[in-house]
Amino acid sequence: MRYDVVGLGIASLDLIGVTEEQPLFGAKQSLTGWHEMGGGPVATALATLARMGARVAMTGAVGNDGYGQRILADLQTVGIDTQAMHVRPGTSHVSFVLAEPGRDRRTVWWHNDPTVLEQVPLEHELIRSARALLIDTHMPQVALHAARTMQATGGLVMIDAERVREHTLELLPLCNLIVVSAEFARQATGVVEPWEAARVLHSRYEEQLVIVTCGAEGSWCANKGELFHTPAFEIEPLDTTGAGDVFHGALLYALLRDDPIRLAIRFASAAAALSCQGLGGRGNLPTVSEVEALLEPA
Amino acid sequence: MRYDVVGLGIASLDLIGVTEEQPLFGAKQSLTGWHEMGGGPVATALATLARMGARVAMTGAVGNDGYGQRILADLQTVGIDTQAMHVRPGTSHVSFVLAEPGRDRRTVWWHNDPTVLEQVPLEHELIRSARALLIDTHMPQVALHAARTMQATGGLVMIDAERVREHTLELLPLCNLIVVSAEFARQATGVVEPWEAARVLHSRYEEQLVIVTCGAEGSWCANKGELFHTPAFEIEPLDTTGAGDVFHGALLYALLRDDPIRLAIRFASAAAALSCQGLGGRGNLPTVSEVEALLEPA
Ligand SMILES: Nc1ncnc2c1ncn2[C@@H]1O[C@H](COP(=O)(O)OP(=O)(O)OP(=O)(O)O)[C@@H](O)[C@H]1O
Ligand SMILES: Nc1ncnc2c1ncn2[C@@H]1O[C@H](COP(=O)(O)OP(=O)(O)OP(=O)(O)O)[C@@H](O)[C@H]1O
To answer: Is B105 domain-assigned?
Structure first.
C-alpha cells in the first residue's frame, strides 16, 4: 500500500485573530495575535496522521488565488501528498477565526466559491493504493464514488460530518466509521441526547461503528450493539478549533495499528485534548509519544 | 515640485468579510463575500488623491511577510510611489473587517507588530519635494520631524487623528489642517459636542483650520474664528469603512487646487459619500468628475 490514508474534502486557510478583550460588534479592536494556518476537517485530520508518522495524501480542490497557493504549500509542509489536489477558477475556502483564550468560545466566518469544489475527479488509483479513506460532506458526488471504490478494496471508510447537507445521508451507509458532532447526530436523527442519537444511528446502520463527539463532554460510541461513553481529558483549553478534526485523524491512526476500539477512542481523545492547548487546528498537533504520555503518565 | 502629497503613516491589508446574516459570537457562519484590499487612513487618502490625478508618494513601513508584499503591490497598483516604503522584520498591519450591507455597522479587528513602525527614517528630500504632507498618529517621532521639515518649506501639513496616543497632542500645533473624528475631538478636549470640540481645538491652535467629522451627521469646521456645519450627502451606504480617509484625501486635493474652504469640504463630503457606496475603503474611489456630478447634478 502506498498510503495509509487518503482524504477527500475541503482544505482551507484559517486566519486566526486572538483577542484578550471582550469582542463587540460595531467596534474597532486590536488583536494580540494573528496567525495564518491551514484548516479544514479532512486536511487537519490528515495533518494529524502525518504528524504521527502515517503516509497520507489528499484529493480535492483549491481556487486559483493566493490563498490556494498557501493552502497547498501548507499541506506539503506538514507532510501531505498533494499531487491529487486540483486548482480551479474561483476563490479558495478561507476563514477568519476569532479565538478568545481562557473562554471556550470561538467564532468562525468562512467563505468559499462552491464552483471550485464541483467536478473534482475521482482519483481511483490513489484510493485503491490506500488502507483507509476519510471523507467529509462537501463533495458528495465524488465522495460516493470514492467510498464505493474503497469498499470494493476492503479498506476502511471514515466520514466526518458536521451538518446534514444534500446527499449526506446517502453517504453514511457506505462508511464503516461514522464519527460525527453532536449537532450532526441531532440533525440526522431528530434526537437531542447524543448517546441516544448514537444508538439510533447505529441501529440504522448495523454494521457500522458510530461515534458522536460532544466537546468537553467526551464522546459516545455505539458499536456491535454496545454503547459506551469516553470522557474528555481535563485540560485548560487555549482554543478548541479543530478538536474534532484531530480526533478523527488520531482515531484512524489508532485503528490502523489495530488498537481495540476503546483504546483507540482514548488515544483520539488524548490527541484532541492536546490539540486544544495550541491555537487553531494545527497549532499543537501531538506526536504519538506525546499522546501516550498523556494516556499513561510516568 | 515632484509630488503633490507625501503621506507618512500606516498602510494595511484589509480582509473584508460580507455577511447577510446577523453575526453571532460563538457561531460558525458563512460569508457571502470575501475581499482583500489595501487599507490604512493615510494610504487610502493617498489612493483617493491618486485616483483624482494627484502625484503622491508614501513613506512608512510594512513587515517582511506576505501581507507586506501585498500591501506594497496594492499601493503601486493604485498609483502611489512606494520607493520610500521600508520593509522591517515583523508582521504587517492587517485587519479583518466584518461588513453588514444594509446596516451602517462594521466591525474591525486589527493586528500589527509595533516594532515594524519603529525607527522609520525621515525622508527629508521626499518631503521637501512635495506641496503637502499627510500624517497619522502611529509614528509620532518621525511625524514630528516630517511636519517641521514641511513647515520650513511652507507647505501644508494635514493630520488624520482617530485616537489620542502618546505624543499625539505635540503633533497638532505643527499642522495647518487638523481633520479628526468626533471621537478624537472628544478625547482631546473632554467636550462631548463635536461643534463645541471643534471650537475648543481651534481656539487652542488659532492659526489652524479644524474639522471634526461626524459620519452621516456631516462635519464641523472651525476656521479663522468662524464655525460652520457641512451636512453629509444623503446616500444608501453599502460600507462606510474609510469614509474619513477618502474625506481627507479629497479635501487635500480640493485645497491644493485652491478651492475655497467651504467648497473644498463639500467636495470632500461628496467624495466620502461616494466611497460609502463601495466595499471597504477603496471599493469605490471616485474620480473628480464623479464627485462633481454629485455636487452639481446636471
Ligand atoms: N474543551 C475540551 N477539553 C478536552 N477535550 C476536548 C475539548 N473539546 C473537544 N475535546 C475532545 O475532542 C473531541 C471532539 O471535539 P468536538 O466534539 O468539539 O468536535 P467537533 O464538534 O467536530 O469540533 P471541531 O469543529 O472543532 O473540529 C471530544 O470528543 C473530546 O474528546
Ligand atoms: N453614512 C454616510 N453617508 C454619507 N456620508 C458619510 C457617511 N459616513 C461618512 N460620511 C462622510 O464622510 C465624512 C467622514 O466620515 P467619518 O466621520 O465617519 O470619518 P471617520 O470617523 O474618520 O471614519 P473612518 O474611520 O471610516 O475613515 C463625514 O463627515 C461625511 O461627510
So the answer is: no
